[in-house]
């Protein structure tokens, strides 16, 4: 099936547009996918940052709570720590609001937000109230215990003073030797009672041991027995009064030392135990909340890091596939368009050159020129019209020559007839002179001859008129054919002009395609710049992550040393016995804090390791992507250069088509001139036809006159 020139050019333009559309679509799709992947990676980095902020907030909130528990004996949470708790609350809200758009419809974020908020509220409200309650309770009990201690000390001092006074009374009457041992035992027992009381007060956190209670009872018994012995030896009223006062002081010591003080110590230990239980519960709640939150956050960090790595790998795969697809389609398109363009241009220019040469040969008068073209496109129609025009011209020229020859011959016959008529007239005149009869006879013969010649001439003129009518009809048909051929040539000229316009449009589209490819090149260059910036950022992130790892190593060492020091302190406190019990409690709290620090450091270390691993993989992927982007930039530039060559080829084709259009317009002008010439021939033929009609009418008149003359001659002969 043969295609027309317009169809061929439309096919070429459509192929170019399809190729440009496909290349641009693939490039746009690849760029869109790359930008989407980069955006997704950035989103996951933002999520990781938000999760890291939440993790830092949780760790700091836990550390704050532990510090407050360790420093619970200070009486209240410091204002600085309260301000920091408020700041952490605001930071928790900001971090959760930052993460909210990225994790819509996920339940873990509200849970984490509420857990951190509960942790901070528990520290700010519950723990603070418990510390204040502890401080208030300890202050009240401490006041009571101190008052009891002062009363015991006062009674002991009073007992010692009264014992000294009683000794002086006994000395004044030389009875001191008999009570010296009782007085000494009484003083020793009173001092021992005071010392045992001080020891109990020092160890009040652990309560009163049975040994200390037994020792107090023993010393009180010693005091009572010695007072009884001294009372038995008292003689004077002063001595009896002193002994009575000493018994009252001993009862007071017994009341305060054996009943009030143990009750206060028991209340102290019970209260402290209950408060410690509450602290332990709060500590457990804080640990549970922080552990749950940290576990959720760590899982999300791991998932986000894995997703970011997968997205980076997927982006690299998409980018590589897009590169190879673009290269293959570009090469195939270049080959197809080059072959198609060369074939179409060659299929247009070669026949048109042959047609122009053929038309020039006809214009130069070579009507026997020949061209062989079998296709049914516009050029085929033009060649067929030219060949038909040449055939018609040949026939017209042949007929014109024949008619010209016939006209010459018939004109000669007419001239001969006129000459004979003239001779007949002369003979008629001569007949008048020679005689009517002879003249009439001769005139009759002449008239008969003239009539016969006129009839023959009439027949010739009629035949000529018919031939001229036929010639005029043929000329009319030729004129119509020439009009059709002129219309065909005009259509060819218009098609050539339209083809030139389409070619110009194709050139503009190819130029736009080249501009689009340059834009793609610029876009890919921008992508490469963004990738380089991301790579630098990831390198810095990797460096910071390594620095964090080193810092975490230092923190781990410090925690290990702290744990070791706490263990040593606990050992020394155990060696110190009851005196080191309070220090042992502090050492145990320090050990717990060190263990929690080690655990948190281990978790942070795992997170940092995961970040380092993900960052390393991302950096490697970014290196590969940067290389691929460089290759795409090079290929896009090469595509732009090739499109520029296509624009040049289309420009050349446009110039050739413009030349063809000009040649077609010249041929249309020549066809119009031929049409005018045929019209002139038709007009001349019409004039000859009119002249022949006039000659025929004249001959008719001549025949009538000859008949009248024949009648006159007949009358003359008869008459």
From TrEMBL:
- Specify the domain of life of the species encoding this protein: Bacteria
The record's Pfam families line, in alphabetical order, gives: 4HB_MCP_1, HAMP, MCPsignal
Stated family? Belongs to the methyl-accepting chemotaxis (MCP) protein family.
- Could you name the Gene Ontology cellular component terms for this entry? membrane
Q: By what name is this protein known?
A: HAMP domain-containing protein
The record, for SUPFAM superfamilies, names:
Methyl-accepting chemotaxis protein (MCP) signaling domain
Coiled coil regions, renumbered to chain: 386-438
For whether the record's keyword set contains Membrane, the answer is yes
The beginning of the lineage is:
Bacteria, Pseudomonadati, Thermodesulfobacteriota, Desulfovibrionia, Desulfovibrionales
């Amino acid at each position: 099936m043969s295609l027309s020139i317009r169809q061929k050019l439309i096919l070429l333009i459509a192929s170019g547009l399809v190729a440009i559309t496909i290349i641009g679509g693939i490039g746009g799709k690849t760029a869109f996918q790359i930008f989407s992947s980069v955006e997704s990676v950035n989103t996951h980095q933002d999520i990781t940052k938000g999760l890291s902020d939440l993790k830092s907030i949780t760790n700091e909130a836990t550390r704050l709570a532990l510090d407050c528990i360790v420093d619970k004996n200070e009486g209240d949470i410091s204002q600085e720590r309260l301000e920091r708790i408020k700041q952490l609350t605001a930071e928790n809200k900001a971090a959760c609001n930052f993460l909210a758009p990225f994790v819509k419809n996920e339940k873990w974020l509200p849970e984490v937000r509420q857990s951190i908020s509960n942790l901070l509220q528990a520290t700010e409200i519950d723990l603070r109230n418990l510390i204040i309650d502890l401080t208030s309770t300890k202050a009240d009990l401490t006041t009571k215990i101190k008052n009891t201690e002062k009363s015991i000390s006062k009674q002991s001092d009073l007992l010692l003073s009264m014992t000294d006074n009683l000794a002086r009374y006994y000395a004044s009457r030389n009875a001191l030797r008999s009570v010296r041992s009782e007085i000494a035992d009484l003083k020793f027992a009173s001092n021992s009672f005071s010392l045992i009381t001080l020891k109990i007060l020092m160890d009040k956190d652990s309560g009163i041991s049975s040994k200390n209670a037994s020792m107090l009872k023993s010393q009180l018994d010693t005091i009572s027995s010695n007072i009884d012995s001294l009372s038995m030896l008292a003689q004077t009223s002063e001595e009896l009064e002193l002994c009575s006062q000493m018994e009252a002081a001993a009862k007071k010591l017994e009341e305060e030392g054996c009943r009030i003080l143990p009750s206060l110590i028991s209340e102290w230990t019970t209260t402290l135990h209950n408060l410690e239980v509450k602290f332990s519960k709060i500590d457990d709640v804080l640990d549970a909340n922080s552990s749950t939150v940290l576990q959720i956050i760590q899982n999300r960090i791991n998932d986000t890091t894995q997703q970011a790595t997968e997205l980076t790998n997927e982006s690299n795969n998409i980018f590589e596939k897009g590169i190879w697809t673009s290269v293959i389609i570009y090469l195939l398109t270049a080959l197809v368009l080059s072959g198609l363009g060369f074939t179409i241009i060659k299929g247009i220019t070669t026949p048109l050159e042959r047609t122009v040469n053929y038309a020039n040969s006809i214009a130069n008068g070579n009507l026997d020129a020949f061209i062989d073209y079998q296709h049914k496109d516009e050029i085929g129609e033009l060649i067929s019209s030219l060949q038909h025009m040449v055939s018609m011209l040949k026939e017209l020229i042949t007929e014109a020559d024949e008619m010209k020859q016939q006209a010459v011959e018939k004109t000669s016959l007419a001239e001969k007839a006129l000459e004979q008529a003239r001779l007949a007239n002369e003979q008629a005149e001569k007949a008048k002179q020679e005689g009517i009869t002879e003249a009439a006879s001769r005139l009759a013969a002449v008239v008969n001859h003239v009539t016969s010649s006129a009839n023959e001439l009439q027949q010739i003129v009629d035949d000529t008129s018919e031939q001229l009518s036929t010639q005029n009809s043929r000329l009319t048909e030729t004129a119509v054919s020439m009009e059709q051929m002129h219309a065909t040539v005009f259509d060819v000229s218009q098609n050539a002009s339209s083809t030139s316009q389409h070619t110009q449009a194709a050139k503009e589209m190819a130029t736009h395609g080249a501009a689009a490819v340059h834009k793609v090149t610029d876009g890919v260059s921008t992508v490469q710049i963004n990738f380089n910036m991301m790579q630098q950022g990831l390198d810095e992130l990797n460096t910071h992550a390594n620095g964090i790892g080193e810092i975490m190593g230092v923190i781990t060492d410090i925690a290990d040393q702290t744990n070791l020091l706490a263990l040593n302190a606990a050992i020394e406190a155990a060696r110190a016995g009851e005196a080191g019990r309070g220090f042992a409690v502090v050492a145990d709290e320090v050990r717990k804090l060190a263990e929690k620090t080690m655990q948190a450091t281990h978790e942070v270390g795992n997170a940092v390791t995961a970040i380092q691993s993900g960052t390393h993989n991302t950096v490697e992927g970014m290196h590969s992507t940067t290389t691929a982007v460089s290759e795409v930039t090079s290929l896009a530039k090469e595509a732009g250069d090739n499109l520029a060559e296509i624009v040049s080829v289309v420009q050349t084709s446009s110039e050739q088509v413009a030349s063809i259009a000009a040649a077609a317009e010249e041929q249309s002008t020549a066809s119009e001139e031929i049409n005018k010439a045929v019209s002139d021939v038709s007009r001349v033929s019409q004039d000859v036809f009119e002249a022949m009609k006039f000659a025929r009418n004249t001959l008719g008149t001549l025949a009538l006159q000859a008949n009248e003359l024949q009648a006159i001659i007949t009358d003359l002969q008869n008459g």
